[in-house]
Amino acid sequence: MKRMLMVGAGSCQINAIKKLKATGIYVVAADYNLMTEGKRLADAHEIADAFDEEAIYECAVKHQVDGIMTTGTDQPVLVVARVAERLGLPHFIDSDTALWVTNKKAMKHRFHQFKIPTAPFAVINHQFSPTALMGIKPPYVIKPLDSQGQRGIYKVDTIDEIRQRFDDVLVHSRSHEILVEQYYESTEVTVSGWVRHGKATILTVTDRITFPSEEKIGVCLAHEYPSRHMATYGQKIDDLTGQIVTQFGIEEGPIYFQFLIGDKGIWVNEIACRLGGAYEDVTIPLVTGVDVLSLNIEGALGIPLAVLPKEKHALVGAFNTQLFFCNPGEITNMTPISEIKALPFVVDAGYNYRIGDTIGAVENASQRAGFFIVTGESPQDLHHHVAQVYRLLRIETRDGINLVRPFDYGNTL
Predict the structure, then answer these.
(1) Do 155 and 141 touch, CB atoms closer than 8 A?
(2) Element (H or E) spanning 142, and its range?
(3) Residue 247 pairs with which residues in a beta bridge?
(4) Quick check: 174 pLDDT over 90?
(5) How far apart are CA 317 and CA 248, in angstroms?
């Protein structure tokens, strides 16, 4: 029996763990949590920080795994590549590329080196001089260099605010520096695809809908397909994706790129070499018939991959993945997830909380309360179906207050 080490055992890894088990692969799940749903599903589990290369290396050696992988999360991609190289295990990208796609300092400098359009930026430490930000117009966006889930990201208007927020950013980093970018008034699209022999195949382009609040800048609320930008920017998205794959030396495996579209055209926000964390392992097969999760597993085990289809065959016309949040409170009642899944247009749904849990204030993507995916034949269908689910969806306090924050298309699109 083949053995796979799954780095990360949270909600983003559950589908992969289920798929591994269903195909007869022994699964070892590792992260810093004592117990998670992913660990309950796995054959074995270890307490080891997914960011800690040595801890993950020791897990791989202890369990004599045949492969190591992660899905849906950025930072472990570097650990997976480094541990795979050390043990001679199969891997999609080498550790140099893995660093470029997980560390924003390396990523942004490579964008600049190869003239890939991105926001003007600087990498600064605590003692930075205002001259370090010459050429960057306010307002600014400040970010950790090596975090995920929109943790520690703030929009600020002045250099004094950067200094005030500096430590708030560093709390979410293993570095002593932070990234400062020029804010770009824009909408976002996400490109999901697969690379074979250095050539990218784009599978889906979705509109990435985020919180309107600047305090939670970049926190995703939904992905909608097809993107409304394809008629105008489809060719540019394709060309830019190919340029990034070439200049970053991405030879094989999944890609997940975030682009910003505004009055200056397309700027690249961030890139990753992983399956997305918005259940793209469910939605990409719906649209294309390509089982990207199986491709990810096979590649991590060194199994020769089937050639991707040259022509995509749409199984649904449109989908919307809702990544919903709640107001703070203690949960005493929840709509059974089976009732949500019973709706004919719902593909999948799930909760990240249970009855008895207390939900805190929304700070970043890690407070996501759950998800559901609806299909339709048009944007109008999707909007109607999303509204129907929210009418049914209740996460209640003892007083019967529904904590679910409804999705408002008017304030997000």
Answers:
(1) yes
(2) strand 140-144
(3) none
(4) no
(5) 33
Whether 59 shows a pLDDT value over 70: the answer reads yes
How many angstroms separate the Cα of 354 from the Cα of each of 333, 351, 359, 411?
9, 7, 10, 29
- Banded pLDDT at 364 (limits 50, 70, 90): confident
What DSSP state is assigned to residue 308?
P
CA distance 395 to 352: 11
- Residue 331 carries which DSSP code? -
Residue ranges and CATH numbers for the domains of the chain are 3-91 (3.40.50.20), 120-182 (3.30.1490.20), 187-300 (3.30.470.20), 318-412 (3.30.470.20)
Q: Which pTM was predicted?
A: 0.94
Q: CA-to-CA distance for 374 and 382, rounded, in angstroms? A: 7
Position 85 pLDDT exceeds 70? yes
Cα gap 152→154, rounded to integer Å? 7
Residues 318 and 226: their CA atoms lie apart, in Å, by: 6
Q: How many residues does the chain have?
A: 413
Scan for tokens 């392992």, then name that residue.
281
User: Which DSSP state fits 221?
Assistant: E
The angle subtended at Cα 330 by Cα 328 and Cα 332, nearest 5°, is 135
